[in-house]
Amino acid sequence: MVQVTSRPDETVEGAGPVTGPSPAPDAAGLGRARAAGFLVPSMVLILLFLVVPAAWTIYLGVTNYRLTGLAAANPEVVGLENYTRALSDERFRNSLVLTLQFVLGSAVIGQACLGFAIAYALRDRRGPLRRVVEAFILLAWILPSSVVAFLWIALLDRDAGTLNALLGMPGMAWLLDYPMLSIIIFNTWRGTAFSMMLYAAALENVPRSHLETARLAGASTGQQLRDVVFPRIRGHVLTNLLLISLWTFNDFSPFLITAGGPEQRSEILAVYVYKVALSGGELGFGAAISFIMLLINLVIALIYLRMLGRRKERA
Amino acid sequence: MAAITLRELTKVYPNGVRALDALDLEIADGEFFALLGPSGCGKTTLLRTIAGLELSSGGSVRIGDRDVTSLPPGQRDVAMVFQDYALFPHMTVRDNIAYPLRIKKVGKADRQDKAARTADELGLSALLDRRPGQLSGGQQQRVALARAMACHPQVFLLDEPLSNLDARLRLEARTFLKRLQRELGVTTVFVTHDQAEALALADRIAVMEGGRIRQVGTPTEVFRRPANTFVAGFIGSTPMNLVPARVRGDELAVAAVRLPVPEDVRGELTDGEQVVYGVRPEYLDYSPEPASGALTGQVVVVENLGSFSLVSLDVPAEEPDAGATTSVQVVVPEGREPEPGDTGWVTPRPGRSLIYRDGELIGSTAEAAVPAPRTGVGADA
Amino acid sequence: MSTVTPTADETRTEPSRVAVRDVLARIGRYVFLCVVLAFFALPLLWLATAPFDDTPTIAASLPQFTLDNFRALLDNPYAMTSLLNSVWLAGGTALLVVTFAALAAYALSRVRVPGRDALLYGLLLLSSIVTGTATMVPLFELAFRLNLIDSRLGVILILTGGLLPAAIFILKDFMDATPTSYEESARVFGASPLQIMRHIVVPVVRPGLATVGVWAVANVWGNFLVPFLLLRGPDKAPAAVIMYTLYTEGGQADLRLLSTFSLLYSLPVALMFVFVSSRYGFRFHGGIKR
């Protein structure tokens, strides 16, 4: 995290002797008091509804708090019991593996690769084809999740689904036989728009002259991508991977399609927590799993940020 | 309209940088005054401190008979034109020009009328309903000037007024600006890093370095008699030749020849003293034949600059280290350029030689009474 | 059309081979784009056909055109209310997010606060983690203790808290891109901070405010989890939750109701997208360079 915080505007100060006027500390004559006042509403809400819940998760995770019953009134601190229970729980481990499959399959491979391929294929295209392709991809992204969930249920329906009708294989129960594959493809469909737009913006930053230099030197498309395009957009790639990995990791919408089933075969962690904590009422245990999820999120973030930092050092 | 008086003006940034170091400066009523210096010398900070956008850490700023040191910018009765003009992109030219009047609670009809008249004076009438984004750089500058004029301030402050224009437009805008200032007669302070711009526009110039003023004077003074080697090197489109020299009785040992010590400083030098001999390339005469009292060396580079050429010679350095050379540049009029490899002689014109001790000019910076036709080369970059 | 189809070694190979490869690359690109188009369009087809079909099935098919299905929608007690609920939630949240984020972003952009970037990145990271499902337990708890269960205000506040860090981040980018000379210029003319805010800053960053507003509306409009967790009865439930109950509860789903409701519920965000993309161009303009 430390690396990313060194944005250019911070390095201006104290760079060598007098370097012109240092950027105005207070261009609008706002004053510290008023500036602090401007910050207060946001900070209160963020503190209350982001920071406090995150901290609370840690506390709840060491209690046997339940939604109903005796432990609802008097939760007891049970130490790390929830954690040891989670780590030895087959269902949790299964869920963790499924989540990693989900992130790797739908975010890293699905959204990022497909998004880049589309952005690259459309990069210097104008006109109706580009607009239509982009419009559909964006629609998939912006439509409400409960609507698209039903669209996919309808698409994949065993008896009358459009897909089976098209493929001519009625009776194929996609959601029952291939639940993970279904939600991975669903999430790829759902989220590719973000990666596509981000890469489209990134590709515009690759100077044409660099690509032309590579082509004059006789580089193939693959070599151009490797030697010219990727080094220029590495920061975008990492940022994109970081964001979509986190989003996908915490995504709840597969619940709307498979509800974790059949037999927990698509029960990713987000769904697992919901079932354990809110359907099952084991709030303490659920919080412990939530906290493990937070930690994994943090690890994902740190790995990407480290890679991003290394890039900056080399630059 | 008013004079500006700065006393002991100091600005220290929180990070310890002294952007202004106890400046004293008087800018006369109606004067067109330039703050000139390399980037980071504090000139923009000084301008912004006069405007009130930066608060000084010490000293005082007076505009006319008011002490404005701790007044907010809006109460100082100044107008500022920013380097990027800062025209509000969402307002038309009319609304931009009328904006200061809107703040001063002038009625809508009145201020629009006033804006239209000001725009008319600057030839902007046809553009009143456009947005800044639809204007050329030169037009934007005029709108910014019109907006500054609209509220009749006592002082105009211009930050790098010409730097955002392309080269050709810049000359045109320079002439326009000088004429406008003459006509309005408002005390005007402008910041520039371009010495040619300062020489061409200003009545007087303050040359700044490292938060201090190194010289204040008319363009002629700072050009002909720079107070120190910093100013000497900064002013002029070709920097002054600065050659190490040693005093030998009534003569100076400069680059292996002996030159007479200039009359005005004769009494102030001691024998054997190490000094720096300075003379502008414009004030040297080149000759292909040996001449007395001339530096001699080999021509290495000839740069054609249009009506004249800049010729660089390698002259042998002063006695001790034989073999070492110093570069001396001389301006040669068209048609008389030597070829690289030629041997040439350069003779300083009388009264144009300057002697610096520890970087400071010996003698007065006031113009010596030696008539010398100005070549006009210096101000033309 | 495609002038930059990469032709690897055109300096070495003879023209005909280059031309062939050029054509192949172009065909490959078209085929790829058509497959992509089919993949993304296929699931959406049903949404376009079923609402107008007098006997909608679960498969997309050419409809027997009718508008009768929309009557079923009006007959359903919760359908229209839920859309109204969604409007309340989305509008309220967007208003709070834009107002608070604009104030905070302006302060952070213009006044030097030590550690402000670290703070912002930390919050952004936290928000992308916490708004997900990981904190549903404490959020539920918190809402319970603050008496915000089954309250629209609770949903609005929680959603606002989750969206604020990213909104501040986006808006700060816009504010940072606005030259301070605008405000300084206004200050020299004597404008007060509030006048500067009203006359200069808000109009100049209006595209940013619109972007964040639209983004917040879209987010809340589609958000299922928070209202699903916090709102009890169907009378307060927004469309996202009602939509879900329509196809999970009560045996055989009424496809006529479901399809028309889906369409009506999707339409606002789709229209908003069309509006934004025609007005501002729906892409990142280098804003994401973290």
Beta strands of chain B, count: 21
Report how far apart the termini of chain B are. 32 Å
So what's the overall shape of chain A?
A: globular
How many E strands of chain A?
0
**Proportion of residues in β-strands of chain B:** 25-35%
Count of helix runs of chain B = 8
SSE sequence of chain B, one letter per element: EEEHEEEHHHEHEHEEHHEEEEEEEEEEE
Chain-averaged pLDDT of chain B: 88
> Would you state the CATH class of the domain at 97-268 and 293-314 in chain A?
Mainly Alpha
Mean pLDDT reading of chain A: 81
Instruction: List the total number of helices of chain A.
Output: 16
Classify the oligomer.
heterotrimer
In the CATH scheme, what's the topology name of the largest domain in chain B?
Rossmann fold
Number of domains of chain B: 2
What would CATH call the architecture of the domain at 97-268 and 293-314 in chain A? Orthogonal Bundle
What secondary-structure arrangement, pairings included, does this model have?
The complex is a heterotrimer of chains A (315), B (381) and C (290).
Chain A lengths: L1 H4 L2 H4 L20 H29 L9 H4 L7 H8 L1 H32 L6 H15 L2 H11 L6 H6 L6 H4 L1 H26 L3 H9 L4 H29 L4 H5 L10 H11 L3 H32 L1
Chain B lengths: L3 E9 L5 E10 L4 E5 L6 H9 L6 E6 L2 E2 L10 E4 L11 H11 L4 H14 L15 H14 L4 E5 L7 H18 L2 E6 L2 H7 L2 E6 L2 E6 L1 H6 L4 H6 L6 E8 L2 E4 L2 E4 L13 E6 L4 E4 L7 E10 L3 E9 L8 E9 L9 E6 L5 E4 L2 E2 L20
Parallel strand pairs in B: 3-8, 3-9, 6-7, 7-8
Antiparallel strand pairs in B: 1-2, 1-4, 4-5, 9-10, 11-12, 11-14, 12-13, 14-20, 15-19, 16-17, 16-19, 17-18, 20-21
Helix pairs in contact in B: 2-3, 2-4, 3-4
Chain C lengths: L14 H35 L19 H7 L3 H32 L5 H19 L1 H10 L6 H25 L3 H9 L4 H12 L1 H17 L2 H6 L8 H10 L6 H25 L11
Helix pairs in contact in C: 2-12, 3-6, 3-9, 3-11, 4-6, 6-9, 7-8, 9-12, 11-12
